[in-house]
Design goal:
Layout (H helix, E strand, L loop, with lengths): L3 E6 L19 E2 L2 E2 H8 L8 E5 L3 H7 L4 E4 L6 H6 L2 H4 L5 E6 L7 H14 L3 E7 L8 E4 L5 E5 L6 H4 L4 E9 H8 L16 H7 L4 E7 L10 H14 L1
Parallel strand pairs: 1-4, 1-6, 4-5, 7-11
Antiparallel strand pairs: 2-3, 6-10, 7-10, 8-9
Length: about 240
């Protein structure tokens, strides 16, 4: 079955600019390669012509370095859901699986992405959420399951009760969706939150309310879950990559 990918790569990386480096976040380098290089290498089971890069800040740099991919522009930074909305036309017609991932998470391994896709197809899900446990402290959303162990909701770290804070299963923010259901849910996203943004994390709950099948691919991910938002995290990622090499 054909699959497409949407890679979110529009961020400015404000907290990475303390060194005076003026680059899009995904173009910051770890061991001599842009962060985005590692992500695209890990998902290269999806052909470049089916891989949509959502670009924004200094998009020309990303487009020049990664020619051969499909590019769409997120003109305003209005959240992760808004970023995926920018790929609506590029996704085109038909109904097929869409992998949604982030260009600033260079440590996620190919086998992790492949396992997520495998679970999605094997279970016949409309949405499959990658979740993970890690001993690295991370302010990620928690996965709340019902009494039967099925997905109930994602609760953002800042909104967690003390009991929910203790949940070890974290939302990585990487998903596989069926394209038509994804586009339908994106059209119903609201932005009534403290940031005034459209969150991709709200899409599984919308689809669950529609009665659609939501699956979970849970793995022990350790440092794979580290996204690069700060200079310290960039150093962490470099150390991890060096250890793998």
């Amino acid at each position: 079955m054909s699959i497409k990918a949407v890679v979110l790569a529009a961020g400015k990386g404000t907290r990475l600019r303390t060194e005076g480096v003026d680059l899009p976040k995904v173009m910051r380098e770890a061991l001599g390669e842009p962060l985005l290089f590692y992500v695209l290498r890990a998902i290269d089971f999806v052909p470049p012509e089916d891989t949509i890069l959502v670009v924004g800040y200094q998009k020309e740099q990303v487009m020049a370095h990664f020619s051969g991919y499909v590019f769409v522009e997120q003109k305003e930074q209005l959240g992760t859901g808004h970023a995926v909305m920018a790929a609506r036309e590029a996704l085109g017609e038909g109904d097929f699986p869409v992998l949604v991932c982030y260009g600033d998470m260079p440590l996620l391994r190919r086998e992790t992405y492949e396992d997520l896709v495998r679970v999605h197809l094997a279970e016949g899900n409309v949405c499959t959420i990658l979740t993970g446990t890690s001993d690295v402290p991370m302010a990620f959303g928690r996965i709340v399951r019902d009494a039967s162990g099925r997905f109930q909701e994602v609760v953002e770290d800042r909104d967690c009760t003390e009991a929910q804070k203790a949940i070890r299963e974290l939302n990585v923010g990487v998903y596989v969706f069926q394209s038509q259901a994804l586009l339908s849910a994106l059209g119903r996203l609201g932005c009534a939150n403290s940031q005034g943004e459209y969150y991709l994390t709200d899409v599984p709950a919308i689809l669950k309310a529609d009665g659609e099948r939501i699956g979970i691919c849970m793995r022990e991910l350790g440092d794979e879950m580290i996204g690069v938002n700060t200079v310290e995290q960039l150093y962490q990622v470099e150390e991890a990559l060096r250890g793998r090499a």
